[in-house]
# Entry
Amino acid sequence: MSFTFLKALPTPAEIRERYPLSPKGRQVKQERDKAIREIITGQSDKFLVIIGPCSADNEKAVCDYVSRLARVQEKVADRLVLVPRIYTYKPRTNGDGYKGLAFQPNPNEQPDLTAGLIAMRKLHMRSIEEFGLPPADEMLYPENWGYVEDLLSYVAIGARSVEDQHHRQTASGFDVATGMKNPTSGDFSVMLNSIYAAQHPQHYAYSGFEVETSGNDLAHAILRGGVNKRGVSQPNYHYEDIKRLLGMYLKMGLQNPAVIVDANHSNSDKQYEEQVRIVKEVMHNRQLASDIRQLVKGVMIESYIEPGRQDVTGQVYGKSITDPCLGWDASERLICEIAEMNQ
# Structure
């Protein structure tokens, strides 16, 4: 037999009952969901900044980061909506390496999925309850939605998942803004087909049930660059790329056309410091053309307390153990510049 069944995991209902969000926390999330919906649908001129570590590897450091973000949010509240990037699963291209807090709560210990599910929920809850910032996470495993459905204000479907039918169908049942990344090839049509599927009702098998979904009108595009057949990164955040995507968006007749530009990954070739230049170019292009301004609703930035990255065994507090991130000082300056440019 190819599978060894180690132990049954607690159900989403059991975890939510053990770790409930407070009434105040539910109100905070409801208000944030509304603010993000108004941006995606064009009812608000505010700009989304989804920012935080490549992966949320340490509860103390992540909460320290979110506390700093909360203080900056107060300064830019009239122009920006900041969403802490608290990614608790880390997709691995070849299956090796640290797979995230929800898989391995302590990066230096063995995996423990039950403890991981609890750690994931508690960290998301702290972001809401203590700092008033409902988080974003990547839905790497669609069945995990039930564990966090009352906590997340933004969901990303990653470049390796966006072509998967199960992810597309599950995204159609999410009730929050959901960004569908272009695949690693950079193909826009694959991403747009995923958005179409997510925006429409679906009927399929989910977690042992036959289910129907209502469709998610807030499903939209995330541009993260691509990699060509020679393995060379190809950015797709430039003026011409956005114009081309806009034309494809309109031709398909999708609801609420919207784009978030991911400043790292293949757009920066993982040269994390380039995120500053890329974000400024995106903001400049929004000032040049009204149709680009209407389409580009936000940016996604990989940022932590200390710049760069370290190995899992590293001891530097607040430094990424996966992809390299922009440091806090540069990130704070960049957020303030984004606010100034969003006029």
Q: What stands out?
A: The two ends are 61 Å apart (CA to CA). DSSP finds eleven helices and twelve strands in the chain. The first strand starts at residue 47 and ends at 52. The chain has a mean pLDDT of 95.
